[in-house]
User: What shape does this take?
Amino acid sequence: MRSDDSDRQADTDTLYNNNIYSLDYEYKPIKGLTVRGESAFSQTKNQAGVNEIKHTLFGNAHRIETIAQGGPSRVNLVYERVNPKFETFLGSASQDRQKASAKWKYKYSKNITLNSGFTWFQNSLSNSANRNDNYKPELGVNIKRLFNRKYSEADISFKFDKRTGKRPVNFDHYTNLSYRDRLGFVDMDNNFGFAQYRTSGNARNTYDFNYSTSLGTRHNLGAVVLKPSINAGSNFIEDEILNKIDKIIEYSVGLGMDIPKHKITSNFKFGQNILASPQGDCSNKLFTSISFYYKPSFLGKLNSSTIFLRASINDFNFETRSRNFAEKSISMGLNIPIDLFVGKKDKVERL
Assistant: This one.
């Protein structure tokens, strides 16, 4: 992958010449064990201005993942490292960091699954004086057929995030409860969350309460499927240091319309977000979005290619009128997935 700057708008603009060489791999030594990863190497030449000296940097980024599955257990181990000199302009990577994580999912019974995990994150690999370490353990449980209801499902999770380093130490706690069920022909999804953000030295002590609910249904009308939905949520953020409570309320209505025979799916959504802050700039946002996807039969030989159209509008209004603005976005195109295979038809391996 290559990117190259050729023209400056100003004499002080930096020009970049960037080459990326990458490799993906996967290995299955035994049944139930998979090792896969990716590595990338960058060569970047930059010139800060017309009369500046050109510099060349060489960097690398790596990610390796191990997945082990057997019986009721599934273990996932991941390690990532991106060195400070790795540059990419056509991809996505955060420089100067490394991360290790481990997750264990254990199916205790047919309807109960236990989840646990631990993540360690470190930045500023090249400057130990500014380095921060994050430690994030988590525990959770998923319960199906709660109260002996066929479609019920509940999730409970607890997370902790501790950051240490040059900055003040942070202690953040997260608790989340969710419940999904079907009442007659209506599907519902409810979520309640609580978070505490605390910083050493009494620099920050904030409580965040949030709740959201979603109601939806599905109706078959001959060749057309309609999927109306209603969503509502609230968020209360209490700051004990500043002695204030910010209130956020959001609601929206949506309508999905599918035509399965012609492989057409579409969705429309309209809503409002209101922020009330006793010591800040209150806001009122109206938003709407439309999406349309079509898989025409004449593109069937191109691996289920999709024609898409997406549009959205966000209209922001503040107490300070000079801050008012609106965002408009529209995108359309053709998505063509490409898969490469080797081997015979009865035993095909993906490249």
